[in-house]
Specification:
Protein name: NADPH-dependent FMN reductase
Mean pLDDT: 90
Number of strands: 11
Distance between the termini: 25 Å
Largest sheet: 7 strands, mixed
Keywords: Flavoprotein, FMN, Oxidoreductase
Oligomer: single chain
Structural class: alpha/beta
């Protein structure tokens, strides 16, 4: 059984990004994987910002990255870039902290004008960390996300493509080549 760490990089307690991350963690678990959700905003700020990797909570968060087969990075888009909170955490990881891992980068934001923040901002960092496979990133526009109480609804224009990206991530976890359908290459 493969293991996945879903990391949400939003500093907000009411974050739609965090809701999407939780949604994905549940879907991965339902498909037979062990998925855990790491909310970076819950880590001790002083230890995180001072790069205190000896702090027990920071050390455990970094160790979790090392123990899993796959990583989902969920970030809000601020000023056409991924969150500073996520950047601070990624900077704590060893130089090749994603070696051997499949990684799914995704972001939320108010405008499709920021969609390239994933490919031009986050993807190079993920690649430099040595990821085995970085699947197609995905951008969710805020107006396609509706939060009611504890429930998250994703508009059909985004839910289908998100499911497709998640399927590609799961294939990458299993080491299945891109384009494989039901045991044969498409």
């Amino acid at each position: 059984m493969s293991t996945v760490l879903v990391i949400s990089g939003s500093p907000s307690k009411t974050s739609k990004t965090e809701r999407v991350a939780e949604h994905l963690a549940r879907r991965l678990t339902a498909s037979g994987r062990r998925a855990e959700h790491l909310r970076l905003r819950t880590l001790p700020a002083e230890a995180l910002l001072s790069a205190d990797t000896a702090h027990p909570e920071i050390a455990e968060a970094v160790a979790k990255v090392g123990r899993v087969d796959g990583i989902v990075l969920a970030t809000p888009t601020y000023k056409a870039a991924y969150s500073g909170l996520l950047k601070v955490f990624l900077d704590l990881l060893p130089q090749f902290g994603f070696t051997g891992k499949a990684v799914l980068p995704l972001a939320t934001g108010g405008s499709l004008a920021h969609v390239l923040a994933l490919d031009y901002g986050l993807r190079p960092v993920v690649s430099s960390l040595g990821a085995r496979h970085v699947v197609q990133s995905f951008f969710l526009i805020d107006k396609h996300l509706t939060v009611t109480g504890d429930d998250l609804a994703i508009h059909e224009d985004s839910s289908g493509p998100l499911a497709d990206v998640l399927e590609q991530f799961e294939k990458a976890l299993d080491g299945v080549p891109h384009g494989t359908v039901l045991g044969r290459t498409a």
